[in-house]
Amino acid sequence: MDNKKVMEKVKEAMESAPPRKFLETIELAVNLRDLDMSVPANRINEEIILPKGRGKDTRIAVIGSGEMVLKAKGVADVVIQPDEIETIADDRRAARKLVRSVEFFVAEAPLMPTIGKRLGAFLGPPGKMPRPLPPGTDPTGIVANLKNTVRVRTRDKTTVHVPVGTSKMSPEDITTNIIEIMRRIESKMPRGPGNIGPVYIKTTMGPSVRIN
User: Fold this and answer.
1) CA distances from 114 to 91, 147, 151 (A)
2) For residues 159 and 170, what is the distance between their CA atoms, to the nearest angstrom?
3) Contact 158, 39 (CB under 8 A)
């Protein structure tokens, strides 16, 4: 994609959106074509660090014990200790609320079997199973990266919706994020750009603008 042309479309989408009293998300919609989504190799399940960040806070949860918990308390939004896993799992409403409110989970590797058994039904379908870490790992750097990360996941669908920033960000920064996402998506396609159909950009409440 041509950076200049993408930026023009980003500006068009942002300028055509009526002013709102809340911070709007800028979303990219990528339509894939000529792909059999029943073939696992054609699906995408990627975590992409946005070069210019997401433009708003992203909630991260750390599931761990001991030293990891002590280090996580200063950087993670939610810290869950082993004895709390059962309590959360037994309250289905609380478990669903937790999964909806947290974008990414990381956990000590030895806890993964328990997490899978007790919370897998809640974490699995939205693709939020934790990233495993060795016991005692300092999660500070990982949490910082996840704050600027988006998940690109197709499953059986041919349209990918990805947040690329917010209305308070500059068109230049949003364009940089879009170019990075498109580069990563194209790299996963059998025919690269040849598998990319129409791509649109829009604010939360604004009209869609085609950018390719």
Assistant:
1) 16, 25, 24
2) 25
3) no
Which runs of E-coded beta strand occur in the chain?
25-32, 45-49, 60-63, 78-80, 104-108, 131-133, 149-153, 159-166, 196-203, 209-210
Which residue type occupies 38? S
* Domains of the chain from N-terminus onward: 3-55+148-210 (3.30.190.20), 60-146 (3.40.50.790)
Measured CA to CA, the distance from residue 77 to residue 105 in angstroms comes to 10
* Contact in structure between 191 and 33 (CB atoms under 8 Å): no
Whether 29 and 161 have beta carbons less than 8 Å apart is answered as: yes
Nearest by Cα to 111 from 88, 141, 143, 134: 134
For 109, left (φ over 0), alpha (ψ -120 to 50), or beta? alpha
pLDDT tens for each residue of 103-161: 999 999 999 999 999 999 999 999 999 999 999 899 999 999 999 999 998 877 899 99
CA 184 to each of CA 88, 147, 174, 180: distance values in angstroms, whole numbers, following the listed order: 35, 19, 16, 6
